[in-house]
UniProtKB/TrEMBL annotation:
It holds the Pfam family adh_short. It comes from the Bacteria. Belongs to the short-chain dehydrogenases/reductases (SDR) family. One of its GO terms (molecular function) is 3-hydroxybutyrate dehydrogenase activity. One of its GO terms (biological process) is monocarboxylic acid metabolic process. PROSITE patterns: ADH_SHORT. This is 3-hydroxybutyrate dehydrogenase. It comes from Oryzisolibacter propanilivorax.
Length: 260
């Protein structure tokens, strides 16, 4: 379905980003990976996912909190594959503290990586998409782009901002072949969320499974984690012909969290 297309997925060396990258590769898209840590393992996984389509995989380690590195990332993607057809803004970090205690440098870093980076990638990728007459921008927001939780002021502010940016981008491209939508997951068992599970376990003297149940029970009626694979399939849908007129949505995949 996506033969000849190129997808850039930020924050894609683990978790949700890697799941989306593999799903797009299975549809034949070449992939530009981005993120910290080991790149060889994720690259091998994506190559395996797209093996039958001859998918190529590149990697760039841009720090998504630095605009100059983001510009270099987009230049690199264009050099490798011509242009970015599918942009998935997924990079994100988290810090938990009350507003009055929130470290200013943590606030600045979360807003930069979780929100401002998506503005930079979008402004840089859009001209090529518009010129080609086709493009998909998929912003990985969060259920926290729709509702709030205590202790997460920067994250919730950034994710609400991502939903707003999604809507504006969708309106500005509404008469073109470019669409922009947001995915709003609930709990996904990524390394980021596992840290919160570990914190619950320590706080309440629970084992790993008990801490997971407690975490899910507080927010997610389905009592099950959303998976990176499920989120990847939703991204594929947005890229399919069925998604041609899906514009500006914030699509929650949250086990009923926001329905409460």
């Amino acid at each position: 379905m996506l033969h000849g297309k190129t997808a850039l997925v930020t924050g894609s060396t683990s978790g949700i980003g890697l799941g989306i990258a593999k799903a797009l590769a299975r549809q034949g898209a070449h992939i530009v990976l981005n993120g910290f840590g080991d790149a060889d393992g994720p690259r091998a996984e994506v190559l395996a996912a797209g093996e039958q389509h001859g998918v190529r995989v590149a990697y760039h380690g841009a720090d998504m909190g630095r605009p100059a590195e983001i510009e270099d990332l987009l230049r690199y993607a264009a050099e490798q594959f011509g242009r970015v057809d599918i942009l998935v803004n997924n990079a994100g970090i988290q810090h938990v503290a009350s507003v009055q205690d929130f470290p200013v440098e943590k606030w600045d870093a979360i807003i930069a990586i979780n929100l401002t980076s998506a503005f930079h990638t979008t402004r840089l990728a859009l001209p090529g998409m518009l010129a080609a007459g086709w493009g998909r921008i998929i912003n990985v927001a969060s259920v926290h782009g729709l509702v709030a939780s205590a202790q997460k002021s920067a994250y919730v502010a950034a994710k609400h901002g991502i939903v707003g940016l999604t809507k504006v981008t969708a309106l500005e491209t509404a008469t073109t072949g470019v669409t922009c939508n947001a995915i709003c997951p609930g709990w996904v068992l990524t390394p980021l969320v596992q840290k919160q599970v570990d914190a619950k376990a320590a706080e309440h003297g629970l084992d790993n499974e008990g801490a997971k149940r407690l975490l899910l029970g507080e927010k997610e009626p389905s009592m099950q984690f959303t998976t990176p694979e499920e989120l990847g399939e939703l991204a594929v849908f947005f890229c399919s012909p069925a998604g041609n007129n899906v514009r500006g949505v914030a699509w929650n995949m949250d086990g009923g969290w926001a329905a409460q």
